[in-house]
């Protein structure tokens, strides 16, 4: 086995480009492992854990690119490094001979596109403030995809944005729809009458897709960052966006998706909603609705979409645990079969979906540790898109490999009896996320069976048929691997709870009993 590494000084590349280079190398014959990472301290730790550290890379800094390959022989590793450099330099070259190369700075980009009014920024968190501030001071709205951005930096950026009348979406903003233009992870949904203000990404995607399924569309969908409704940030972007949607003639109804607002922000938020002059649906996951509100408060993302659609149609609506109770009864009869099912392991790529699952399931199953929390509970839910799991790595919606590995491990060891999963489709997401997930589920279930265990998998898919991946095909691939696919995350959680605790049927009126 041979390890070879090189450092390319001052050669910044975003995580998506580096992920693709590493993936290309790993597919080579004789290559055991490969990495393409910027030389941040955390990435040095990752390389060490992966057995890819060497003296060659010790002095590499955050602006330097590290390429490392572990292969069957030195010649194979060196060939792989050469291939990596060719891929990277080809990416920097002009797409068409005789044309300008891709810009490598904000100033260069503005010279190529002087009419631009939005900058999408995806750099490591420690550098995000500098780039975002430069964009704001250049008169650009900012879509800040970067995570691990300190809250102090977020506050400064949003103050600057407000002073200039600009949007600062994020940090950790994954999705936006601006005048019908999707930005980031975005599903193909129709334009319509619903304006959405959301924390960051998958909550917005889930509601937009559900609305599309109900025959409605969105006017705008704007992510403001998961900390915007904290006292520290003060709802800076939420209030700006509400004002924009209030004045937008295309928007007839507002949907607000967030974690619970802190007490200092709740009263001003209620006043802003009351002054909208338009109906509003609020889904602050885990929040207790105020005693009096002009808005319709709901508990789940699915309910947010259904309540908004009903308001638009002036139709009555009430939340229901399952959209097709007969189908749920049939699934339960087929899956329970008297076998002991063990515990829950939730493995999510969407943070809002993971948070929603945790809120729905803890009252039904008891305490459930979240991410790295510890305790004597047999259950666990992990948000693999959380900052803690993405330092120096691509988001799991871009690279499904990390989650697939978690799934495979669940089959070979532990007490997991039911896996709870999400699958998020759309532009910018992986081209075929169901492939890696279904293969991992198949392998995990086979390993569990060898050990005399039963392992079920329950999932929901966020997407539309117009998404590049095609929703029906992705669902079919999962179902062929034995995954139970429900219409929403909330319904998937409830089915899982009934699998683990059949006696809960009495707490879900007539729907599943």
Folded structure, characterized:
It is a single chain. The chain is an alpha/beta fold and 513 residues long. The chain contains 17 helices and 18 strands. The protein has helices at 15-26, 41-49, 74-92, 106-112, 125-137, 151-164, 202-213, 236-247, 263-274, 301-313, 325-336, 351-365, 387-390, 401-412, 433-450, 471-480, 489-500; strands at 2-8, 31-38, 65-71, 118-121, 141-144, 168-169, 175-178, 181-184, 191-198, 218-223, 253-258, 280-284, 296-297, 343-348, 380-383, 416-424, 456-462, 483-486. The strands form four sheets. It has a seven-stranded mixed beta sheet with strand order 8-7-10-9-11-12-13, with helices on both faces. Helix 7 (202-213) packs across helix 10 and helix 15 runs parallel beside helix 16. The longest helix has 19 residues, at 74-92. The chain is globular. The model has no long low-confidence stretch (mean pLDDT 90).
Condensed summary:
By secondary structure, the protein is of the alpha/beta class. The protein has helices spanning 15-26, 41-49, 74-92, 106-112, 125-137, 151-164, 202-213, 236-247, 263-274, 301-313, 325-336, 351-365, 387-390, 401-412, 433-450, 471-480, 489-500, and strands at residues 2-8, 31-38, 65-71, 118-121, 141-144, 168-169, 175-178, 181-184, 191-198, 218-223, 253-258, 280-284, 296-297, 343-348, 380-383, 416-424, 456-462, 483-486.
